[in-house]
Amino acid sequence: xxxxxxxxxxxxxxxxxxxxxxPSNDLCxxxxxxxxxxxxxxxxxxNRNTSDVKFFEFGNTYHKYANGYEEKYHLSLLLNGNKAPxxxxxxxxxxxxxxxxxxxxTVLERLGITSLKTAPCxxxxxxxxxxxxKNKTKLVEFGVVSPxxxxxxxxxxxxxxxxxxxxxxxxxxxxxxxxxxxxxxFPVVKRDLALLIDEAVSFKExxxxxxxxEQKFLKAVDLFDVYTGDNLPKGKKxxxxxxxxxxxxxxxxxxxxxKIMQKLQEAFIKQCKAELR
Length: 277
Prior knowledge:
The protein has six helices and twelve strands. It is α+β, with helices and mostly antiparallel strands. The chain folds into two domains: 4-175, Bira Bifunctional Protein, Domain 2 (BirA Bifunctional Protein, domain 2), CATH 3.30.930.10; 189-276, Ferrodoxin-fold anticodon-binding domain (Alpha-Beta Plaits). The strands form three sheets. A six-stranded antiparallel sheet has the order 3-4-8-7-6-5, sandwiched between helices. Helix 5 crosses helix 6. The mean pLDDT is 87.
């Protein structure tokens, strides 16, 4: 493989960490960036007619400086091609910078990290890139990979890349008193309802009613089908809604589940004039 430090001014061969006993000539130096191993994976898939990919990787980078060695832990994301597989009911839509930006923000928000500052990215791995900072610490840089780098890999499609500094993110979470809880030991139960409702009733209304009606065991509410065919009464539509129930302390019994579902049905009938299908 080529020396990737020649592909980007952001890398420097003087910082390479060499292996004393390399497994092969291709693998004699530890990586300075998560990008290039990801591009290897992209071209591997493109050569096998897989052009729509979304990859993530947790891994380390390594540098040798005058004052010692540095090992950093990262999360990297790589996207190219369409946002979703093309089929009869979806529109062909390419992954782009703003799509990646939304994914990056979602990752940080799920970790409780908000109030971010945006700054231009000075890394020449990107033709267009920005970074998100918190308290003057860079958490992630992302953008469109430089065409000059892609050309050296023989990649003609646009590739998007995000590089999270995972230690900086974990440190930010600690400062924000981020809390986690263990995964429940007891199984979830899923039940579905098919409801005939007025066209003016939104899923948001059903969602709020469900959460207000059952606050203890209801973990999730989801809309998985909408039907507005001619065989329905005028001004009506059919929603198929799923409910996820779980007790964190024990397995739910059938009678408890039936009682909860009965409460939900009665609430929908009373507040939305819904009918069961």
